[in-house]
Amino acid sequence: MTYDWLAVASHGLIDLPWWGYVVVTLVLTHVTIASVTIFLHRGQAHRALDLHPAISHFFRFWLWLTTGMVTKEWVAIHRKHHAKVETDEDPHSPMTRGIDMVLWQGAELYRAESRNQETLDKYGLGTPDDWLERNVYDRFSWQGVGLMLAVNLVLFGPIGATIWAVQMAWIPFFAAGVINGIGHYWGYRTYAVADTSRNIVPWGILIGGEELHNNHHAYGSSAKFSSRWYEFDIGWLYVRTLSALKLATIRKIAPKLSFAKPKLVPDHVTLQAVITHRYAVATSFAKSLKETCAAELVHLRERAHRGEFKLADVPSLKRLKQWLSTEPSALPATERARLAVTLAASRQLQNVYAMREELSSLWSRSTESSEQLLVRLQDWCHRAEMSGIDPLARFSLRLKRYA
Question: Is pLDDT of 156 > 60?
């Protein structure tokens, strides 16, 4: 009997090979990731889905054990991030606080903002406020992770402490650091949103689909983060599974773009489609004008070699496309200055960029009536087709088919 207790103390109730502990760690951390993306993010923060009470309570309990996060705090901070994105009031923007701080100290930024009662009161509405939340999860938030440590030690022995340490570091690093930091710093952009959000990789598995951060910023209330055929959102797979089991109700997903027959002039259906799919429109504009921009950059380099201005002032095609697919307010001051220099050197690029700005004004002029906006769209398409810039004319013809 003494030997049995010594074995339990040395190996815990479950004795596994080394790779077994790795698998257990990955599974446990993935359950936490799923809890964050399904319950906290898609369900609570954005109301993109409703969860069955049993599933909702499981996620709350699991997050209490593995993160110590309070639902209202997380939701309020995330909603504020969307409302104040990349301004000085954004709780965790690498544009204002630096990538190193957000990546490596994201958890500290979260804790600092969680002490801001104004944030909690303004952005934390509608989160759970039952007896368990008030008297257990909120009141004893860190006792949960202590209980998780005890359970790991009993089940796995001393190595359980290592598993627990990985569990505790997983969300602070990947969610608070990688998503909030790298997700606004590096990757590709499917939609030309007004901030610098990016999709880190097209396969959202390790962080539950949160890797598709640009897609999420384009359609924040969508329960599905993937949008292109090659993108995969494992969180959406879980949501669909819960929905099939009647354990979740999907409230909203991003609208799909469709095309109608060619029209001579845009109508109200076209206008509504352009506004609904505004981020896709802006991205498509930048791609469609790639040929024109490339030719103009060649011309600018030739002029630079003749000494008309500095060669260093001529941007790369990639950078020029980024400028065309990003709102000026989302560009750093240095980039806006470089853009101004480039436009001053090229009448062609001035025209292209002016048309881009006029197009984006269609969905930013909230005070104008739909009739006024429709007149603007019709005039824009007419001038685009008469501009003499073939890619711009072709883009206009395609735009008129949006439905």
Answer: yes
**Can you give the length of the chain in residues?**
403
In 3D space, the residue among 76, 75, 60, 72 whose CA is nearest the CA of residue 132 turns out to be 60
Question: What is the DSSP annotation of 23-81?
Answer: HHHHHHHHHHHHIIIIIIIIIIIT--EEE-HHHHHHHHHHHHHHT---HHHHHHHHHHH
- Say if residues 91 and 164 touch (Cβ distance below 8 Å): no
pLDDT at 4: 56
Which residue, 358, 352, 349, 354, is CA-closest to 380? 358
Residue 312's contacts (CB-CB under 8 Å, 6 or more residues apart) are none
Tell me which residue of 327, 35, 61, 36 sits closest to 180, measured CA to CA: 36
Judge whether 285 and 89 are in contact, CB under 8 Å: no
Indicate the DSSP class of residue 220. Answer: T
Q: Tell me the per-residue pLDDT of 1-58, one tens digit each, with 9 for 90 and over.
A: 444 555 555 667 888 899 999 999 999 999 999 999 999 999 999 999 999 999 999 9
